[in-house]
Amino acid sequence: HVEELPQGAGGSAWLFAHADTHTPGAALALLPDSATLAAAPVWADALAREGIVVLVLPVADSTAGLPQARALLRRLPGVDTTAIGVWAAGRRATALARELAAAGHSPAFTILQNVANERSALRVLRHQQLPVLGLCGGPHATEARRLRAALGGRNNAVLSFPNAAADLRIPSGFGPHFGPGLPGAVVEWLRQR
Q1: Where does 93-154 show beta strands of DSSP type E?
Q2: What is the pLDDT of residues 49-74, one digit of tens each?
Q3: Are the CB atoms for 31 and 88 separated by under 8 Å?
């Protein structure tokens, strides 16, 4: 099930949900940046097929709209309200890391894609014991080691895809496709939360 949710001048949000609303499952708000926008619906569809409800927000340079997105996800049938997370990319991932570190409250899990090395914010997240998955693609893959060191902890993981683009897809003659092990590695990490 895919549904457009108009957001005014900022564009539309898109809801991707699985057909089974009787079994509560995880949900996430996906905050793409301009480098990952084209892949966002592909990711949302792949995750929805695995039973994860995904709300893709319009592109912005901030986490604007996140509180409303989380509230919307909490009201949806088929969503486990204790398993609502956030996936942010690029500058939005950096902004999210700072906000979560300052807020002291957090979503059930966070995925930070191509996040800048904000060591102080990432260490605060580590001490809050917030489960974080770091995804590093393309030119950001070189940051994986520093991200691992900053996040540490057994709840956290960092996956690096140096042969993929920033959107974690590999260009090919038949169109881009997911990098090796994707989306399975993300789905597996989410299921372990």
Answers
A1: 110-113, 132-137
A2: 999 999 999 988 788 788 889 999 99
A3: yes
Could you say which DSSP state residue 23 is in? S
Q: Which of these, 116, 126, 111, lies nearest to 188 by C-alpha position? A: 111
User: What is the C-alpha to C-alpha distance for residues 160 and 115, in angstroms, rounded to an integer?
Assistant: 12
**What are the helix and strand counts (H, E) for the chain?**
6, 10
Task: Give the C-alpha separation, 165 to 141, whole Å.
Answer: 9
Q: Is the peptide bond before 183 cis (omega within 30 degrees of 0)?
A: yes
**pLDDT (average), residues 22-35:** 92
* 147 and 134 Cβ atoms separated by less than 8 Å: yes
Amino acid (one-letter) located at 92: R
- Are 153 and 129 a contacting pair, CB within 8 Å? yes
d(CA 99, CA 130): 13
